[in-house]
Design goal:
Elements lengths: L43 H9 L2 E3 L2 E2 H24 L10 H5 L2 E12 L9 H20 L8 E9 L5 E10 L5 H6 L3 H14 L15 E15 L4
Antiparallel strand pairs: 1-2, 3-5, 3-6, 4-5
Length: 237
């Protein structure tokens, strides 16, 4: 031997172990993982503010236009309330004294009452009931009329004839002397006054509230209406 130690042919191979690093909390991620940047998700509030700050046209932003519209609505409402408070509707206000001292306009008319047994003669008490019912209806129609209610004075059923049950009635109105010619031509005309009664009868032909043994289903014939205007009478002196 020459003192040289021969090298072993087979060296011991120490296997390399993969050291795994456990991630805890905010530790550094593994080498095979990429660090992703944090993404910003806009909230609803941020999106709303961004939308309001956008320019709609020229230099006007959305929030500015919304504010202007809101202020404009307030101004319009204030003006409307102010104008209405100082406005007087002529149809809701009239001088009752001038009407009472005005010119009287009288009308004379007729209408027919029908029942299911016209051959039977009605008693005097039945005629009285018919007269009272017609008087009340005529009074209610013209007193509650928006067009003629303020000028209406009274209505009266003069008589009801036997046999054909024709009722004769009178209507009285008072109109201020300074009323316009147009008003007298169209509103206080024979045709206009008669059409108010005719329309009411068309709406309800039956005569309610009557108990008449001799005659059932009492009704007024709207086609039988006739009205004549009597010459106006001046109440002065």
């Amino acid at each position: 031997m020459n003192g040289h130690v021969p090298q072993q042919e087979d060296e011991e191979h120490i296997p390399l172990q993969t050291v795994s690093v456990e991630r805890c909390g905010n530790d550094v991620p593994e080498s095979n993982e990429l660090i992703q940047p944090e993404t910003f998700t806009p909230t609803k509030k941020t999106a709303t503010l961004k939308l309001c700050s956008e320019i709609v046209f020229w230099k006007c932003k959305l929030w500015m236009i919304t504010t202007y519209i809101f202020l404009l609505l307030i101004v319009v409402i204030i003006l409307a309330v102010t104008l209405n408070s100082g406005y007087i509707d002529e149809d809701e206000y009239w001088d009752s004294e001038s009407i009472a001292n005005g010119n009287h306009h009288n009308f004379s008319g007729i209408l027919k009452v029908h029942c299911e047994n016209p051959e039977s003669l009605l008693s005097e008490s039945t005629y009285n009931l018919l007269s009272e019912n017609l008087h009340k209806r005529l009074t209610d129609i013209y007193r509650d009329s928006p067009a003629l209610g303020r000028y209406f004075i009274s209505a009266e059923v003069i008589s009801i004839s036997d046999g054909n049950n024709t009722a004769f009635y009178h209507l009285w109105f008072s109109v201020p002397q300074d009323e316009t010619e147009e008003f007298m031509k169209y509103r206080m005309s024979q045709r206009f006054v008669m059409n108010i009664l005719r329309q009411n009868i068309y709406d309800q032909e039956e005569m309610d509230g009557l108990e008449v043994p001799e005659c059932t289903n009492l009704r007024i014939d709207p086609t039988s209406l006739l009205l004549t205007q009597i010459q106006p009478v001046n109440t002065d002196g």
